[in-house]
Structure formats: C-alpha cells, structure tokens
Design a protein that fits this description.
Layout: E1 2-4, H1 6-15, E2 20-26, H2 32-43, E3 49-51, H3 53-59, E4 68-72, H4 81-87, E5 93-98, H5 103-115, E6 120-124, H6 133-139, H7 142-145, E7 148-151, H8 154-163, E8 167-171, E9 177-178, E10 188-193, H9 201-206, E11 209-212, H10 224-245
Parallel strand pairs: 2-3, 5-6, 5-10, 6-7, 8-10, 8-11, 9-11
Antiparallel strand pairs: 1-4, 2-4
Amino acid sequence: MIVHGFHAVGARIRRHPESITELYVDADRQDPRMRDLLALAELSGLRPIAVPSHRLDRLSPGRRHQGVVAIAEASLPTLDLPTMLDRLDGPARLLVLDGVTDPRNLGACLRVADGAGAQAVIAPKDHAAPLTEVAIQTASGAAESVPYIMVTNLSRAIDAMQDRGIWIVGTDDEAESDVYEAELPDSIAWVVGAEGKGLRRLTRERCDLLVRIPMAGAVSSLNVAVACGVVLYEGLRRSRASVSRR
C-alpha cells in the first residue's frame, strides 16, 4: 500500500518501521521538516531514496504527498480485545463504533480517539469499515498509534468489557440525560452509531447508560467523528477534573 505525507509516513516509521519496504523523498526538498524525517528514517534503519517530484506524483497520483511517499505492508500489527483489556493501565477510555462503514469516517474517528487519549477503537467485523489505505491516510498517523480491534460479536465484546468494570455509555438522540449532565464513571467505553442510523437495537439494550449530545441549531445530528470528539473529550475533561480535585 502507499502511505504519503509527513504525518502518516512519520507515524509509520516511528511505530512500525519494519512494515516499510521503500521510502521515497523529494530530492529538491531540504527544509527542516524533511531533515527531521530523514533523521528519523536513519535511526529506524531505513534508507530513503531521493527522487524527482514528478516520480512521487506518479507513485501517489492525485494525492498531496508533501514530498514523502512510502510503500508499506497493507496490514498493521493487530491486537485482540482480551490482550488490550489486560494491558489497560488505569481507567479505560475506549471508543466503540457501531455501524460506521465509511473508511474516511473511520480514519477521522481514529484521529479523534488518538487526540483524546483513547486506548483503542473497537468495531464489529460485519458492520464496520476495515482499516483500508483511505482510512489510514485520513487518520494522519493515528492508525499506527490507536489499536483498531474488529470483533466477531459486538455483544460479547461489550459483555467482556462490562466484566472488567467498564461502563458502556451509548449516544442516543432520545436519551433523557445529555452528555454534560450525566454522571459518568471513571472507566468508559463510549459507543457511537452511524450518522443518521444511530445504535443498533441490541447494542443500545446492552449499554449501561445512554446520553444525548445537545443540538442547539437546525441540524438534527453530527458527523460521527465529531460526535466521537464531543463525548471523548468530555470524558477526558471529567477525568482531569477528578484528578485535580484529589
């Protein structure tokens, strides 16, 4: 697969340099950002190939490559749910996507999850976008830092999280409490459904708590990545406020 741009290529070098088979850089670009990337590549044992910019255009047609293109293995190292749960250090801050099938939305959700410090993003195999090149590129490096765990049965995955003391908090436009009013536990797995469809019935029924995102304007719903950002950052704000009071 093709990975392009400083964010995505730099993240792949830092996290999984062994997955990169070839690294091409613009021979005419000598600015500090490029020098930093070349130094990172050297430390990781990679040997960049300097080429004219038109060759990068052919390698990554129609894309804003910024002078950096890597050819890498399509798949990233995977992590299963039990292993991820065993590795949690402190309260859980997880994101569950129920029915998000657009790869660009998935990439944007991964980027938000990374920014908010989520330990993983979880989705069902039969109702979710796979981690494609489009999703990885949209994530701008977050696909390498936040594990994307696809589970065979989402209901069983929710049961497993609940067994670990993690509250399953779903977003629902019809919920009585909004996300800013509700009492939230320390360990949370936020569950967000596809835009327009929301959570599936079985997923909604397994949630410990349902909250809504208040809408003050004319539109009735948010893009799924924006909704993920609202709830994840509210959870982060609460967590930091709790620590500061101790």
